[in-house]
Design brief:
The chain is α+β, with helices and mostly antiparallel strands and about 60 residues long. The longest helix is centred in the middle third of the chain and has 15 residues. Strand 1 and strand 2 form a beta hairpin. The radius of gyration is 12 Å and the shape is elongated.
Length: about 60
Amino acid sequence: DNNMPKQLVEVIGKDGHVIESHVVELEHGDCIDAEFEEVALVLTERGGKVREAEHIHLRARCIK
């Protein structure tokens, strides 16, 4: 379905640098930024690029 909302989200490490960017697509139309950001964080954590000990330092931001 092309009507699903999409958002570009950057995941940032503790040093302030972007680790990954994800295009997150959610099924419901009234999504808030935090929902997209949470999905991007999970994708990065599961991706294995970041050590588990560093997961607590990750943050995400939606790019408008």
